[in-house]
Design a protein that fits this description.
- The mean pLDDT is 91.
- The protein is of the alpha+beta class.
- It is 51% helix and 22% strand.
- Strands 1-4 form a two-stranded antiparallel ribbon. A two-stranded antiparallel ribbon has the order 2-3.
- Strand 2 and strand 3 form a beta hairpin.
């Protein structure tokens, strides 16, 4: 079975979502705050070209558990 980039993307997305969900569930436990604190990364491209105007706001919040989810998903992808 040939593995492609699409399957890798799906695995990484599921791993990221799983890590984020676990971080969200553990946010009430104070001594695990180093795992659940997230760092926002934002990007806001915009342009006004007279005939076309756009304004996007993209924000990604990464926590240590999200990164661990990505690593775990890549590990599972390599095993499949």
């Amino acid at each position: 079975m040939k593995k492609g980039y699409g399957l890798l993307f799906i695995f990484l997305l599921v791993g990221l979502l799983t890590g984020s969900l676990v971080a969200h569930l553990l946010v009430t436990i104070e001594w695990l705050s180093f795992l659940t604190e997230s760092m926002p990364i934002s990007w806001s491209p915009q342009a006004d070209l007279e005939f076309l105007k756009y304004d996007f706001d993209i924000q990604v919040r990464i926590s240590l558990l999200s990164i661990l989810g990505l690593i775990g998903a890549y590990w599972v992808y390599r095993r499949v």
